[in-house]
Inverse folding.
């Protein structure tokens, strides 16, 4: 692995410290190196706060390091426009940084190559496209938002070895083990909203709370029926009830897409869909999902309900093929992460 690749991976790792707090801004980490020594580190901590490059520059200056002639590594192209904060390119140029190594170009039209051009025009040597795939994965939500003006949608499915999310009587607690459930609670903190269907809300009475209660995502019930849910259910009776929304939609791709557009306008930039079978089936059928977190428990249920019970095709050529990104053992459960093909 080259030094450039090594430092960009360090930037990515640093950037993850901002998970769940930078939206709608991207996750960005920055490292400054001089004479083979890291002299500054920084990451984008929260929306509206200083960008990673500025935090790294300030970190180096606090250490009384001389930035002239150094190399700055960052996973995303530095901004060159005024937004909540001034352009990062100005500070890079001002501090006489010699080289800038970038993971990927910023898809935002306000930047998109302009930051690189500005740095090069100032005589700075710029390389980009280093560990690009990893950089894209890190900012998948940001890229989807910028390019499609829609939230990034993840499906979270917990099932048995034989592909069942519940018994035929709808009993589903608990299929996965405590460690898997803890993993999901942490995962929720990375999303702006958790979405379930009407029947799941009615039968499971979930709280949908994350691990870190200082940041509660919206809890959304997607419904196609006027039937009311009990006011005593957790989503409506706990102290976070103001974060619960019931949205009504016709059962169609147009209806579901309209819901996603509405949520995007509400500054909900990514959504974790947690069921049930009807909702999973429709998001698959309408191709409105981006990835799937599939938790496979060490249980065999036999006759039960499949997560895609209401999804069917008439021709194998129409099968949706997913891309395996990684798998991970969680005690005796298995987490399989798929990207939409």
């Amino acid at each position: 692995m080259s030094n450039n690749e090594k430092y960009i991976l360090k930037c990515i790792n640093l950037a993850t410290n901002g998970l769940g707090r930078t939206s709608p801004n991207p996750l960005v980490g920055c490292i400054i190196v001089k004479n083979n020594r890291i002299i500054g580190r920084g990451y984008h901590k929260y929306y509206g706060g200083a960008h990673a490059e500025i935090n790294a520059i300030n970190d180096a200056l606090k250490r009384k390091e001389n930035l002239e002639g150094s190399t700055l590594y960052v996973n995303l192209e530095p901004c060159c426009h005024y937004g909540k904060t001034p352009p990062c390119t100005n500070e890079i140029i001002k501090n006489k940084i010699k080289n800038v190594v970038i993971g990927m170009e910023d898809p935002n039209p306000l930047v998109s190559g302009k930051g690189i051009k500005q740095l090069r025009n100032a005589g700075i040597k710029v390389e980009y496209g280093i560990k690009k795939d990893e950089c894209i994965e890190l900012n998948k939500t940001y890229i989807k938002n910028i390019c499609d003006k829609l939230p990034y949608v993840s499906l979270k499915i917990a099932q048995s070895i034989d592909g069942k999310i519940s018994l035929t009587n709808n009993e589903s607690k608990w299929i996965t083990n405590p460690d898997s459930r803890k993993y999901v609670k942490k995962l929720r903190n990375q999303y702006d909203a958790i979405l379930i269907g009407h029947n799941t809300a009615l039968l499971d009475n979930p709280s949908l709370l994350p691990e870190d209660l200082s940041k509660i995502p919206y809890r959304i019930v997607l419904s196609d029926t006027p039937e009311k849910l009990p006011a005593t259910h957790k989503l409506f009776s706990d102290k976070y009830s103001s974060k619960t929304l019931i949205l009504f939609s016709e059962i169609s791709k147009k209806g579901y897409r309209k819901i996603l557009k509405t949520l995007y306008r509400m500054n909900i930039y990514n959504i974790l869909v947690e069921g049930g079978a009807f909702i999973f089936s429709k998001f698959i059928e309408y191709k409105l999902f981006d990835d799937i977190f599939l938790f496979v428990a060490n249980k065999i249920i036999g006759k039960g309900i499949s997560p895609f019970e209401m999804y069917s095709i008439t021709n194998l050529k129409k099968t949706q093929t997913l891309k395996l990104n990684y798998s991970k053992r969680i005690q005796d459960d298995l987490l399989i992460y798929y990207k939409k093909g």
